[in-house]
């Protein structure tokens, strides 16, 4: 696992418990497109952080970035329905469920505690589902890039002639 280096070593990143809302460490698989973004993003020399403005701490204050983006979209006259940054999480979870990924995998991806595996089952079932989470995020990345490239879902399906 490598979350704080460049040069092709990104596979997953670990959010320490101290930075997680539920105080539980969280491993996030990085899809190939995500790794490409991280490996090509400009960085400060000798700074291990992927996203920083001061070389000492990770980026914070995302609401300011969101407000700036909203202003830029409005200035360009780009029609955009109201949205929040949390909509990215919701959209991902919704798409993954629709694509057949089980709810417990989505819960683990979102670092939810007490989701679909709760009560007594949660006492015994402690799996992190890392391979399943990796497959889910790879599929989500592929869907995002297909949409960005204007490819409709199912465009790679070949119609077969009936005999």
- Rounded mean pLDDT is 83
Order of helices and strands: EEHHHHHH
Largest sheet: 2 strands, antiparallel
Strand order within the widest beta sheet: 1-2
Count of runs of 4 or more consecutive helical residues: 6
| Rg over C-alpha atoms, rounded to the nearest angstrom | 19 Å
Description of the molecule:
By secondary structure, the protein is mainly alpha-helical. It folds into two domains: 1-60, no CATH class; 78-151. Helix content is 42%, strand content 5%. The protein has six helices and two strands, in the order E-E-H-H-H-H-H-H. It is globular and about 50 Å long.
What order do the helices and strands come in, and which of them pair?
Elements: E1 12-15, E2 26-29, H1 32-40, H2 62-76, H3 86-98, H4 103-109, H5 119-124, H6 130-148
Antiparallel strand pairs: 1-2
GO biological process, one term: DNA recombination
Pfam family, one: Phage_integrase
Family: Belongs to the 'phage' integrase family.
Keywords:
5% strand, Integrase_catalytic, DNA binding, 163 residues, globular, DNA integration, 6 helices, Tyr recombinase domain-containing protein, two-stranded antiparallel sheet, disordered N terminus, Integrase-like_cat_sf
Précis, in short:
Residues 18-113 form the Tyr recombinase domain. The protein has 163 residues and is mainly alpha-helical.
